[in-house]
Amino acid sequence: RLTVELCVDVIKRQRGVTVAEHSEATTPSVAHRVAALDWARIGAELDERGCATTGPLLTQAECGAVAALYDREEGFRSRIVMARHGFGRGEYRYFAYPLPDPVAALRTSLWPPLAAVANRWAAALGAAPDFPADHADYLARCRAAGQARPTPLLLRYGPGDYNCLHQDLYGDLHFPLQAAFLLDEPGADFEGGEFVLTEQRPRMQSRAEVVPLRRGEGVVFAVNQRPVQGTRGTYRVAMRHGVSRLRAGRRHTLGVIFHDAR
Question: Contact 218/177 with Cβ under 8 angstroms?
Answer without folding.
Answer: no
